[in-house]
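so my prof wants the structure for this chain in the tokens format not the other one, which i didnt know existed until like an hour ago. anyway here's the sequence
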Amino acid sequence: MIESWAAAEWFTTRPKLQEKITLTVFKVTGETNTDDLSPAPDAWSRPDIPLHALAMLKNPREGITDSAKQIRELKEKGFPLVYVGDVVGTGSSRKSATNSILWYMGDDIPFAPNKRTGGFVLGGVIAPIFFNTMEDSGALPLEMDVQGMAMGDVIDIFVYEGVVRKHGTDQVITKFEIKSDVLLDEVQAGGRIPLIIGRGLTGKARESLGLPPADFFKTLKAPEMDVKGYTLAQKLVGKACGVAGVVPGQYCEPKMGCVGSQDTTGPMTRDELKDLACLGFSADLTMQSFCHTAAYPKPVDVTTHRTLPKFISERGGVALRPGDGIIHSWLNRMLLPDQVGTGGDSHTRFPLGISFPAGSGLVAFAAATGVMPLDMPESVLVRFSGTMQQGVTLRDLVHAIPYFAIKKGFLTVEKKGKKNIFNGRILEIEGLPDLKCEQAFELADASAERSAAGCTIKLNKEPVQEYLKSNITLLKWMISEGYSDARTLARRVAKMEAWLAAPTLMEADKGAEYACVIDINMDEIKEPILCCPNDPDDAKLLSEVTGRKIDEVFIGSCMTNIGHFRAAGKMLSQSKGQLPTRLWIAPPTKMDQEQLTREGFYATYGKVGARTEMPGCSLCMGNQARVADNCTVVSTSTRNFPNRLGQGADCFLASAELSAVCAIVGRLPTPEEYLKYYTELGKEKESTYKYLNFDQVESFQEAADEVTIDPEVHAAAKAAMAA
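here's what i got, hopefully its the right format
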């Protein structure tokens, strides 16, 4: 058996990709997001791949009337199908989107029922998380110009030549470049994760037999670069790999400081962990939340709420409780500065360090092994300057990024021939060093809507120190309340205290080079910026869309914090009588809800007729409560894809402050109207935007004072942080 592994028979006996692959095109024009492939209302069925695949492309669109029937008819041509789109895989990190495509267009896995591998996806632009998840599943994702392909075309892909021809002819449709030759090995191995594990076992087997290193596998050559300096992201990943920095295009396996999982992908992550025979997490901290299903649980969700916490805590993970709130609002509280992590939610975007969100398979791998595979992306620098103007909020700065990118020609709203300078790259933000960490997350969080691979924000030490002091108290309170795993929480507390004893933050080198630099002068932003229906890239000034009637307003999601709800409450207090709109209020955590109740804001929400929701994701994902069909919504949520918040709904993305005004007046106001409300708010700005510092909340600090951390844990933490 050892000799078989040493000879890599597990790999060499599998077929290589053929020189020519003939496929029938299944073309979906425009943008295919993961909501299209794995609709949120059907999230409950995700672990059952064949059942969940029935929901793929269930919402009719141009060229798609009955996708299952169309797929059956195209298969009658006698060739495998290839999924083709102008933009493919934007949005959430759900592996279920990949699973659905592969169920129709992939190959059976021997002795593994109801799972498939292989398959092909061609896109003008393929979102990075989706691309990686396809890699993990053994599929071949290829970016190329797809405008010359139509539904039902039969094409020949010459993988090694990098050419697509009309079937049976020499007519070239388009040319392409494979991301790397290693991708071909991944397909042959049945996926990136099987390749990594198998390659490692082959290496160990050869070492045990005294054989030289294997030459069966393709290797990703380190880019030849004259490194003048590293960006912040490159240094963060370098630190996690034990080197000074990692350059774009370099393969690496950074050590995981934090791994997050949420409840609509958690059951799939659990299945993947079982496949990996994981009995204990190697990642320093793995956390599971229940924010997507707690408010309106289906029977299958109730079972998940009962069984998944035990599964996670038995492996040394931290399990939150239904009703606690949103994954990111909690996971951010557990972060250490300058570390790398991942999570099974596309909005796992750390305000400290850097995160590379992933599908459930890669999240399971990262949690189990403590590392994750990464082809280091390039970086785009967004550099803010100037001063925030009256009435302009941080959410407006979030939207200023696509707004200015469009103005500079780096981003287009049109999907055919789509331009997106951020796609697959790391968004690195400078010029706002004094933001609180809660504020910094709002910017990092929205990098998901740019289809960025990750995000960094340069902060000064003071807000980070303040944040960690607060979080130490919160984590000790969690221990006192019986949250599992107490050992993991205590270890994290000790490491936070070790960092505070000698606080340092990494920053980019002066000679660092970027794929692009976008300068944004805040002096030029005089009014709110919204993202218009139904595309988070379609950023416009308020004055360009003024007057649109608004039916419903949602203030909630991971893009909000307690300051937004105070601001909304103070604006709503200026309203007389019931609102002309339906207003939804959903704070991100139960602690926010409790504090807002103590301060009297829930009385204000009730007075104007708002519908208050359990802390959590609420409307944002679209799998729980929904807005009315075909209505117009203003929302603080993360993204506004078609049908996400409600069937046929038009959704504007805006700040909590502008959303509150829309709720009061029933339409998009003029900038002048908006400023009248905001001016009153500005008089109490300091008390409005005050964040929860748990070390200053008596009940939390009293509980924390009762918790002691073993000296051995402190010593180990100090040594680990010094390494």
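also thought this was worth mentioning. The chain has a mean pLDDT of 96.
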